[in-house]
Amino acid sequence: MELGDEWMMTQTDRLHFLISYMQQEKNIAQSVPDTFAERFEVFRGLANERPAQKVSREFLDVQDAFLSEYNAEGITEFESLSPGDKQLYIWQGDITTLKIEAVVNAANAEMLGCLIPNHNCIDNIIHTKAGAELRLECADIMKNQGRKEAVGRAKITSAYNLPSEYIIHTVGPVVQGGKVSPMKQELLAKCYRSCLELADENNIRSIAFCSISTGVFGYPKEEAAGTAVETVKQYLAETGSEIDVVFNVFGTDDLKIYENLLT
After folding, report:
1. What predicted TM-score, i.e. pTM, was given to this entire model?
2. Which residues, 6 or more positions from 90, have their beta carbon under 8 angstroms from its beta carbon?
3. 3-class DSSP state for residue 81?
4. CA distance 26 to 141
5. Average pLDDT over every residue of 60-71
6. The predicted structure's pLDDT at residue 3
7. Quick check: 151 and 187 in contact, CB under 8 A?
8. Over 70: is that where the pLDDT of 4 sits?
9. Average pLDDT over the chain, rounded to whole?
10. Picking from 2-16, 51-65, 202-216, 242-256, which range would have the lowest pLDDT averaged per residue?
């Protein structure tokens, strides 16, 4: 493929190339579906389970051309949002479509993204839309660290093909049976504070938080939201930070929870 040819391909053709490449890596011979929707699901599944191993420049060029166009639809500019309480914002939508300096990813301890094909957790969706480079950067971070990521800490990476500039990854606490211990609450608060500290260290002026630990990690939503808002407010008051903070919600129930806390 000649340099620049990836920009002449259709989105469906790009998916065919990407799927075929990853199938060849796994030494499997399967037909590529005809429709865009079916091809995207196959591409996503293969990308989700692909390990953090080197990939050709050709693959990355086609992938980036595909994701650049795919992610361009439905973008929301942070500047279009109105604060609910000084520097605090609530926004309902897909965090991967928010154009803001940094978004927070609810990661797992391996910090390599969700490896379950087509899983709908935020970690999976962020890695899917950011591209293979994100897993490679995370793998370098973890290799240098030499151990799994502790709950409550945070790491920063480029956002690659997302409309944001950075991704801040944090591992939240797991809650079983819906009962939150004081230690779990403290660890969740530490997640928010660690992300804010890292953002300020990197001169980031706006950040969007997903609802950390409230998905498969089982943290009750109302309690998590209360800890999130309290921790962020306390951090801003103690540090004098000027960072703007967006609480990203997806469902209507989550939206009401945050509205009750901030309006």
Report:
1. 0.94
2. 84, 246, 247, 249, 255, 258, 259, 262
3. coil
4. 25
5. 97
6. 47
7. yes
8. no
9. 95
10. 2-16
Residue type, 221: K
Of the candidates 121, 132, 114, which has an alpha carbon nearest to the alpha carbon of residue 53?
132
Between strands 98-99 and 76-77, the pairing is parallel
Give the bridge partners for 154, in sequence order. 170
Q: How far apart are the C-alpha atoms of 259 and 171, rounded to whole Å?
A: 25
58 token code pair: 């050709």
Q: Which two tokens stand for residue 234?
A: 């306390």
180, containing H or E segment: none
Which neighbouring-strand residues pair with 90?
A: 247
Cα(49)–Cα(117) distance, integer angstroms: 6
Separate counts of helices (H) and strands (E) for the chain: 8, 8
CA 150-156-158 angle, to 5 degrees, is 145
Q: Which fold has domain 76-262?
A: Leucine Aminopeptidase, subunit E; domain 1 (3.40.220)
Q: Which two tokens stand for residue 138?
A: 């995370």
Domain ranges for the chain, please list them: 5-70, 76-262
Question: What are the tens digits of pLDDT across the range 188-219?
Answer: 999 999 999 999 999 999 999 999 999 889 99
Per DSSP, 79 falls in state G
